[in-house]
């Protein structure tokens, strides 16, 4: 990075500095590369460290930089596209190897999820809960809990599979054999829970986007996905059809 004269710039110094650093990130640095420390950067640009911190904080908000515990400030990878369109119908894991199943167990789902699944009686106590992680450039950017009622994949009920990633793959495989009638999605801004924060390398309470998807087959809800995305690493995409609805 070279030096720059900021005194004569009419906009705030930190804002102009942010632009200069952003251009340097594009031309001189690679994804994951660690930036020099604040003292070195402040001296190089001839600014106070407070001004430098403002510029770096803005770049972090824009997803250009990441502050990683025990590492420092690094160049962030490109934002991950999160498709929230309901026009494209596909089961989880179809054509997307960025998601990796890490565990699966049979549980009684949380009440809110049970309500979405319309589970009652024994069905409400026999739901496969699959834990999946999505990574890009070696970094986890999303964690998903996928709930699949045993009734949706009856072939597995007598398979004798044990909990774990092998069972997760079996559930996903059986799920994709079903006809998919459609799906709907809801997106909310939330705060990272302790388990999600640990997997996503964030502090508990960090901002996240929570995408809840219901999958329909044969007139019923066949599965529900609750995916938590790091807010600083993703961008929403809406496909080719303008089917976005904003509820107040």
Write the layout of secondary structure elements.
Layout: H1 13-28, H2 38-45, H3 49-61, E1 65-68, E2 72-75, E3 80-83, E4 99-107, H4 111-117, E5 127-136, E6 139-149, H5 165-175, E7 182-191, H6 194-199, E8 207-217, E9 220-230, E10 234-237
Parallel strand pairs: 3-10
Antiparallel strand pairs: 1-2, 4-5, 5-6, 6-9, 7-8, 8-9
How does this model look, in words?
The protein has 248 residues and is of the alpha+beta class. The chain has 2 domains: 63 residues, Winged helix-like DNA-binding domain superfamily/Winged helix DNA-binding domain (Arc Repressor Mutant, subunit A, Orthogonal Bundle); 158 residues, Chorismate lyase, CATH 3.40.1410. 25% of the residues lie in helices and 31% in strands. The chain is built from 6 helices and 10 strands. The strands form 3 sheets. The protein has a 6-stranded antiparallel sheet with strand order 4-5-6-9-8-7, with helices on both faces. It has a two-stranded antiparallel ribbon with strand order 1-2. α1 crosses α3 and α2 crosses α3. The longest helix has 16 residues. The protein is elongated.
């Amino acid at each position: 990075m070279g030096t720059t004269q900021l005194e004569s710039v009419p906009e705030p110094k930190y804002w102009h500095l942010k632009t200069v650093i952003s251009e340097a990130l594009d031309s001189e640095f690679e994804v994951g590369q660690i930036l020099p420390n604040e003292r070195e950067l402040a001296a190089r640009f001839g600014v106070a460290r407070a001004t430098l911190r403002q510029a770096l904080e803005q770049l972090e908000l824009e997803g250009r930089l990441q502050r990683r515990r025990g590492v420092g400030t690094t160049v962030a990878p490109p934002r991950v596209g999160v498709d929230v369109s309901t026009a494209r119908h596909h089961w989880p894991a179809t054509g997307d190897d960025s998601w990796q199943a890490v565990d699966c167990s049979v549980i009684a789902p949380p009440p809110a999820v049970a309500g979405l699944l319309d589970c009652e009686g024994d069905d409400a106590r026999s739901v496969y809960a699959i834990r999946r992680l999505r990574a890009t450039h070696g970094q986890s950017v999303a964690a998903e809990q996928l709930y699949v009622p045993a009734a949706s994949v009856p072939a597995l009920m007598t398979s004798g599979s044990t909990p774990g990633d092998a069972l997760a793959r079996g559930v996903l495989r059986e799920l994709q054999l079903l006809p998919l009638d459609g799906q709907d999605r809801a997106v909310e801004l939330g705060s990272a829970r302790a388990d999600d924060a640990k997997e996503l390398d964030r502090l508990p309470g960090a901002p996240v986007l929570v995408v809840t998807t219901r999958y329909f087959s044969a007139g019923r809800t066949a599965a529900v996905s609750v995916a938590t995305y790091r807010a600083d690493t993703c961008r929403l995409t809406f496909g080719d059809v303008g089917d976005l609805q904003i509820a107040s």
